[in-house]
Amino acid sequence: MRHPEEPGDEGSRRGLRVVGLWLALGWLGFAALPWNAIGGPGFTAFQWLATWPLDVRTAPAAVQLFKHGRLWFMPLAVALALPLLVFRTRMQDRTASRVLIGSGLLGLVTLIAIAFAIDITGWTWRPLAEIFGELPRRQPGLGYGALAVAAAALMALCHGLALRGWAKGDAFVAGAIGASIALVGLFTLYPISRLFLRVLLDRDGNVSLAALQARFAGSRIWERGGVVWNTLQLGLMTAVAATVLALCFALIVARTELPARRFVRVLSVLPMITPPFVVGLALIMLFGRAGAVNAVLEHAFGIVPTRWIYGLPGVWLAQTLALTPVAYLVLVGVVEGISPTLEEAAQTLRASRLRTFATVTLPLMAPGLANAFLIVFIESLADFGNPLLLGGNLEVLSVAIYFAIVGVQQDPGRAAALAIVLLALSLTLFVIQRRLLARRGFVTISGRSENANRLLLPRAVTGVALGLALPWAVLALIIYAMIFAGGFFEKWGLDRALTLRHYVTAFGVDVVNGSVLWTGGAWSSFFTSLTIAAVSAPLTAAFGLLIAYLLGRQQFAGKGAFEFLTMLPFALPGTVVGISYILAFNAPPIELAYTGIILVACFVFRDMTTSLRAGLASLTQIDPSLDEASATMRAGSFETLRRVVLPLMRPAIVAALVYSFISAMTSISAVIFLTSPRFDMATVNIVGRAEVGEYGYATAYASVLIVLMVLAVLLIRVLVGTRDLGQRQPAVAG
User: Fold this and answer.
1) Of 19, 126, 423, 682, which is most buried with the most CB atoms under 10 A?
2) Residue 61 is part of which domain span?
3) Is the residue at 3 inside a domain?
């Protein structure tokens, strides 16, 4: 590496400046920011400034080292000082890489050692107390000072590896990979590992291989009709139904001239923007023993109501309604992105429209179909609300995990064992999908202007699509009518008097002496949910699409392991994620329990895989030669990503933002364990009211959320826009 004052390679100088910025951040964290987490009102209240920097509770690491004699911080000072040699001496790249890698490893290893050597009661290993002395006060977790030092050490390590040729010497790619691994490891592997350790412990807390064997070998898990069989059967049924219906909707929207296409586009995402348990509640109001349909059938034809809605049929119906939009958001971008020139080429060879669709259009959609199927299958495996509400005697893995923890069993070890089984099923599906599609290419966007006409669907395909989609659409409309109607009845099934009381109770507003008072019981959770979703959605989309770019466009050592790591969050049920977060972040070294940060982290790392899948499906259609052309113009990978790739990924960006925002607003299985009176979420509020029989309040609240999220989806589409490939309007081929 050249000295910064020497003329030389612009990339080396730019890389050196980046290292300098991260190093400055590290020194800021070490010498100025509180090393420990700030309790009470938190860091942003700045009340800690009253005792900063000398009080050990608010002191930076440098003050703790030199004033309080905490010598374990010395290696961190050395780690931050080593990179200064790169600036002060004329080092070659190979020597500079060794210095940066050494300093990064020293800083990270020291920080991890400090984190796990100290807990609430002090030292976790008694010999350390004899060496350094007892810790006098309750030890809080790591704070912003530790975060800054960790970030600096990580970036120094990644930049050093890039100088040695890792990630083709691209510092941005190396840093992005390192940051992704660190974040996924911290917010996925670490919490789950804390829970999975329980599988080795018996009820007395002792390591027991017999308990481990009993948990995995139980007949209720593997036998026909057991929890694994039920989960796979339900997942397969839901994935097939949801993918087929989603394809029908995507084709109708993108390849027909039906005047109601815009309405269909909005209708197709309605089930997704509804909390899943509310869809189940609406199905009970419609098909339950006291439901509207059974009431009509009994009154008109004397048919005795049954409980068919409880069990496999009801859960399958609810999951299909809820998860079809997830597949649609993946497939609609794929259908819209298929190059019409390929279809016109088939027609010039005298292929009919039906044959063109079967041999050209449909195969080009295979990556999107496989991704949609995989996403829906895994979502079905992890679904919690619908099986809980409609399952009856049908036991699936997600509900079994929940009741193993909070039910009569109270056996975290059994919950951990079931979570491992669920993870294995999800990863098996992922491997199958990768092997099916690994050797097939599906590039459809070349970077040239597409002046060909986009062909309309053959009449036979249009008929099939409408025949499957319209009944689903009608049922969806009825379901939503039930949801909205429930809030206007005094007591559904008992007292059908019309009232606005439930809306007033939830969203009442008073004006007293010119001041607006939010008197409704829903406002607090509503504003909290909106804030958390607005923060987490862009973070989730950005993180998922960044990883998609790294996997789809970059080659680096360890890529397979990196892909495996980024798939893990999607394979875990929300109940397990919630419990594991409480176990991991309720005490040092990282204390985040019952804060807004833990809610944002939960949503980002649970939902990023959907953004990742949408991004990968979109990248398969973008010609890699566009990246190469950008590189020949001396653009770095970051500039190529920002100015070339992202504009062509707008459908994937829309899908990622929409799904992330809606998931944050409607999720229940994980956040039910993470909320607090200060950070109450809308779905938890709704469930709490429904549990005490206030269905009018619950449906009124849910209807407001639905309207809000319809507006949010439309706003996101307007702000992000659509991908422009220079295509003319659809026209019927001769």
Assistant:
1) 682
2) 10-164
3) no
Reported pTM? 0.80
The answer to whether residues 142 and 112 touch, using CB atoms and an 8 Å cutoff, is no
Answer whether residue 353 is part of any domain: no
* CB distance 683 to 630 below 8 Å: no
Q: Are strands 489-491 and 495-498 parallel, antiparallel or unpaired?
A: antiparallel
CATH for 42: 1.20.140
347 falls within a domain: no
pLDDT score for 443:
52
Mean pLDDT of 243-258: 86
8 A C-beta contact, residue 21 and residue 87: no
**List of residues 6+ apart from 618 with CB closer than 8 A:** 333, 334, 337, 548, 648, 649, 651, 652
Does position 727 have pLDDT exceeding 50, yes or no?
no
Domain count, the chain: 2
Q: What single string gives the DSSP state of each residue in 51-111?
A: TTTTSTTT--HHHHHHTS--GGGHHHHHHHHTTHHHHHS---HHHHHHHHHHHHHHHHHHH
Which residue, of 135, 164, 193, is where some domain finishes? Answer: 164
Domain boundary among 106, 139, 164: 164
Q: How many other β-carbons are positioned within 10 Å of the β-carbon of residue 125?
A: 11
CATH code assigned at 598: 1.10.3720.10
Is 455 domain-assigned? no
The length of the chain, given as a count of residues:
734
Q: Kindly report which listed range (56-60, 174-178, 297-301, 660-664) carries the lowest average pLDDT score.
A: 297-301
Query: How distant is the alpha carbon of residue 38 from its chain centre?
Result: 28
Task: Specify the long-range contacts of residues 83-88, CB closer than 8 Å, at least 24 apart.
Answer: 83/19, 83/23, 83/156, 84/23, 86/1, 86/16, 86/19, 87/4, 87/16, 87/20
